[in-house]
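Our consortium's second objective concerns turning raw sequence data into structural hypotheses that experimental partners can test. To show how far this objective has progressed, the report includes one record in full. It was chosen at random from the queue rather than selected for favorable results. The single chain below, 118 residues long, was entered without modification.
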Amino acid sequence: MDAANQYLRKSYRSGFNAEFSCEPREPATAFVPYIGTELRDILCEQYERTVGNDNCVHFDNYILQIPADRYRFNYVKTKVRVHRYRDGMLGVFHGPRKLATYDQQGNCIAGSKKKATV
């Protein structure tokens, strides 16, 4: 393995680069900043759950109460996504909208505090 790696470094790489490298057509960089969804909400574990009759989601050993918001009176029988982040925190999503954030013990720490209106 060491001899093969040494051959690649000393002999193969220079010939490969000479044959296949070329100048870019545009001098500007091709990298653009990412402006989409938070990467934290993509790079996490995601699970689909159905909200129970008590407007709660059962996940692992937690019962996650979904707080009231201005979009719906409740989420009973609605499919939601539970995100488990690397730090152990949880988030509940309905489509692209985050309904609530929970700490590592399953306590709601952030969610819509507005009551649903008619």
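The partners drew two points from this record. The chain has one helix and seven strands. Residues 113-118 have pLDDT under 50 and may be disordered. Both points have been shared with the crystallography group to help prioritize constructs.
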